[in-house]
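request received
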Amino acid sequence: MSRFSVRGVVWRQLLRFAVRNTPIWLETSVIAFWSLFFLLWGPGRRSIMRNLRAIKPGSWPVINFFRTYRVFWNYAWSITDTAHFREQRIMPDWEFAGLENFEQLKAQKGGAIILTAHMGSYDLGAHVFSETSQRRIVMVRAPELDPQTGQFEEQLQERSRSEALRIDFNTKAGELALELLDAIQRGELVAIQGDRVTPGIAAVPATLFGRPAQIPAGPFALAMAAHAPVFPLFIVRIGRRRYRLVTCEPIHVERQSRHRDDDLRLAAEEWTKKLEEVIRYGWYQWFAFDPYAEAA
Amino acid sequence: MKVIRDRRDARWLPSRFHFALFRLFAYLRLRATKPQPSRGVVMVVDQYQSAGENYAVTICIFVVMISFVTALLNPTMSLPAACAIALPAAAVIIQVQIVLTGVIITIARKVAPTEGDNLAVSSIALMTLTIGAAIFTFIRDSPARFVAGAFLLLVALNAIAAVLVFLMRGAITDAERRFGVEP
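response:
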């Protein structure tokens, strides 16, 4: 993969350079400029437009084109905020929605699963959680497609590593599942993104915005095996350096029928309902750069 | 990093603002605002936290750059044409300035190593360049000079505000101390 491809290392290096050199009061113009990148990245742009067509049925393509710019604008802000945290330990302002559920999560005896989506800043959310809670958190990430980018990210994460936060990559599903089960049994929290299936990962069929979609089966299977609740939690960017942490009521995945897959599907449906609610409100920051459904 | 919990009115803490004009305004708003308890709100005390301030300053810098390019081009073409070219050119000039300043500072720091990142030095360098561009535009015979003049007026007002903030530093510190922010 070329250093200059969309997922190449150059862009991560450029982001780091920008965060270390751009006066904060000029950041907005820089982000506005670089968000125009959406004009050059056809596949990403078309995927978001396809997703928007499903989220907002009957919407006009020309309006969705400008909405796509807004998605890229929010994405740029989110990765910039994360980079600022890594480089300068600068945090954004936070507010909580569903605080009682968040408190329940923090007070949960034993381990739990945090199920989230590609919204706001996943990295930043996990860091904030690990710094505001006594609980240890294991964050599961999709591996970088480009080895150089992966190496670069690992170096950065090594620098901002804390005792309370561990990052695992879901490269080998079987091995990771055992490690995560072990972590939950030790009383740790496991954070997983549940809105996208990466190749080689088991999936559950679900319906999202009226279209068939694939949802990762892992979080629900893990919850069932560990008898741990699943807390849907979303990190929503609500303004410049402002985020809202939305914590929903936990989903309990229990063996109720003879068929394990049916029970997993029930839990996945409950999850997709919550996911839909949040995406419908925060469509401008659902960073799904691949179409979530083939038919979308 | 200092944070204020459960107080929405903490958004007006002067320490959350960078430029003196905005700090002064924030202090006056803080004095006029009643306590707003709000459970689950976490406000970070950092000088670049205000969205309003940062958007306003970015827009000002962008407009100054547009007026600078317009003033450069105006003698050779009509004003609307100069403005049309100035819009994208200003955006590109800002990016080029940042990259060049960053590269120069990085090289300079390799020669004479210092702690921290480049932000403070690049901020001073880029604001100096912007003020230089505004002065250049202001002395040109172009309608863009009015825009540059307005920006220079803001710079002068900010300098006056800096003096006022310095004189009122005791009162500002006391107001912030009520939120638990120690200088």
